[in-house]
Amino acid sequence: MPPTTRAPRNRALVIADLVVGIAILAFALVLAFVCVNILGGPGLSAACTDTAGCDTGALGTTTLIATAVIIFGFAAGLAIFVVRALQRRWAWFGPLIGLVVIIAAFYAAAFIAGQQLGPGGNS
């Protein structure tokens, strides 16, 4: 099968694609910093006490894994954006995928921390 050529893209749409992608990446970066700060801060580990029946090891592991997944989510969104932009294809959805991964990782970690800390949060 002979290679097909793609139709030239509209310049305004290319610029809009890049601007939207960069805006989503910037928001994802700020959100990732906030999520990592909330999860890695001293408040979460201080709320977990031995008398409350909280497993500090499980909470620490959850925090580390969630932080790693949040960083991976941002890096994957950035990588997809750069590769697709260099291929001159639509690239705005890459950062959106990374943003979804960041949000999912944060809420999964918050759910596990809530299970460890109990209904009152002990904070």
* Main sheet attributes: strand count, strand direction, barrel closure: none
Counting H and I runs of at least 4 residues, what is the number of helices?
4
Please mark out the parts with pLDDT under 50 across 5 or more consecutive residues, or reply none.
Answer: none
> Helical percent range?
over 70%
Number of strands: 0
- Please provide the ordered H/E string of secondary-structure elements: HHHH
Rounded Rg: 20 Å
What is the approximate shape? elongated
Q: How many domains, as an integer?
A: 1
Average pLDDT metric: 85
State the end-to-end CA separation. Answer: 65 Å
* Structural class designation: mainly alpha
How much of the residues is beta strand, in percent?
under 5%
The protein's oligomeric status is: single chain
Question: Your description of this structure?
Answer:
- With 123 residues, the protein is mostly helical.
- It has one domain.
- 75% of the residues lie in helices and 0% in strands.
- α1 packs antiparallel against α3.
- It is elongated, with a radius of gyration of 20 Å.
